[in-house]
Amino acid sequence: MEALFGGSFDPVHVGHLVVAEAVADALGMPVRFVPAREQPLKHAAHAATPEQRTAMLEAAIAGNPRFRLERIELDLPKPSYTVRTLRALAQREPGNRFVLLVGGDAVQELPSWHEVEALPDLADLIAFERPGAPPPSHGLIRRTVAVPALDISATGVRERVAQGRSIRYLVPDAVREYIAAHGLYR
After folding, report:
1. Phi, psi of 24, rounded to the nearest 5 degrees
2. How far apart are CA 45 and CA 39, in angstroms?
3. What is the DSSP string of 23-82?
4. pTM of the model
5. pLDDT value at position 106?
6. How, if at all, do strands 123-128 and 141-145 pair?
7. What is the pLDDT, as a whole number, of residue 43?
8. I need a labelling partner for 121 at 20 to 30 A (CA). Which of 127, 135, 160, 186 fits?
9. What averages of pLDDT result for each successive group of 10 residues across the chain (186 residues)?
10. With b meaning 16 or more CB within 10 Å and e meaning fewer, what string describes 69-105?
11. What pairs with residue 35 in β-bridges?
């Protein structure tokens, strides 16, 4: 089994990495990061392209043998529906059962997810608590994992870059360098 951790990762930050590390410890399994090509429930467009977000994510997880990058959503039609991703993975990897990681804030949005009722047949849903959000609770969630509370958001990172402020220690150095080299979020 492997855990799937999907999201915009626009940009990936240390909060994402801390969550993945805590989940890998708690569940005793590796984590695949799944960057969304286009998230259907995001109200604003992604600031970086899918390729840029994937490159930053690849740089961020390099060197951690428990982390892996999963590019499958980049080749699927837009928007990036979780159920479509899980079906594509099941077709590519028959017999492999996945754990789908869902942030506490995303648990509240589960009723609006595309074909949400099909998810339990495709993966075990496990929620992790996020800072400032109520404890996740939904009938589809099989387990909750506590993760260290870091109040870091991709929105906050993008805002700091736009304001010319430092993002050191909020994102891995390789991500900070990528953002600067490509002039992202200015």
Report:
1. -60, -40
2. 9
3. HHHHHTS-EEEEE-SS-TT-SS--SS-HHHHHHHHHHHHTT-TTEEE--GGGGSPSS--H
4. 0.94
5. 87
6. parallel
7. 66
8. 135
9. 96 97 97 94 84 98 98 95 97 96 90 96 92 79 91 95 98 98 97
10. ebbbbeebeeebbbbbbbbebbeeeeeeebbbbbbbe
11. 7
* Residue 152: count of CB within 10 angstroms of its CB: 17
Nearest to 126 by CA among 149, 108, 103, 157: 103
**What type of residue sits at position 50?**
P
Residue 50, both tokens: 């899918």
Yes or no: say if 34 and 5 are a contact pair by the CB < 8 Å rule.
Answer: yes
| 3-class SS of residue 141 | strand
Beta-sheet pairing, 98-103 with 67-69? unpaired
Structural tokens at position 21? 């590390």
Distance (Å, whole) CA 122 – CA 111? 17
H or E stretch covering 96: none
Contact present, 47 and 185 (Cβ < 8 Å): yes
The tokens describing 4, both together, are 């799937």
